[in-house]
């Protein structure tokens, strides 16, 4: 799954969780509109209610891209 699909899924489900990246907080819909195409195509994994992490080239979880907060 790529980051775009995860963000779209959150929007479609009406999930109002805030996504936290360091000191910035955003909504999934805003990120879909503002992130670069390259970023949206990153392989990622959603741990529901906790975080979105990138998946590295070896197929393992990499760094956490966004923490989810209600």
Account of the protein in words:
It is a single chain. The chain is of the alpha+beta class. It has one domain. It has three helices and five strands, in the order H-E-E-H-H-E-E-E. The longest helix is centred in the first third of the chain and has 10 residues, at 3-12. The mean pLDDT is 94.
Give keywords:
alpha+beta, 5-stranded antiparallel beta sheet, 3 helices, globular
Give a quick summary of the entry.
The chain is an alpha+beta fold and 70 residues long. Helices cover 30% and strands 36% of the residues. It has helices spanning 3-12, 28-34, 37-40, and strands at residues 18-21, 24-26, 44-47, 51-55, 61-69.
Question: What's the number of structural domains?
Answer: 1
Shape: globular
Please indicate the percent range of residues in DSSP E strands (runs of 2 or more).
35-45%
Helix/strand-derived class? alpha+beta
Element order: H for helix, E for strand:
HEEHHEEE
Number of helices: 3
Estimate percent helicity: 25-40%
Contiguous low-pLDDT stretches (5 residues minimum) are none
Question: Roughly how many Å is the radius of gyration?
Answer: 11 Å
Main sheet overview? 5 strands, antiparallel
| Total count of strands | 5
Q: Numbering strands along the chain, what is their spatial order in the largest sheet?
A: 2-1-5-4-3
Write down the overall mean pLDDT.
94
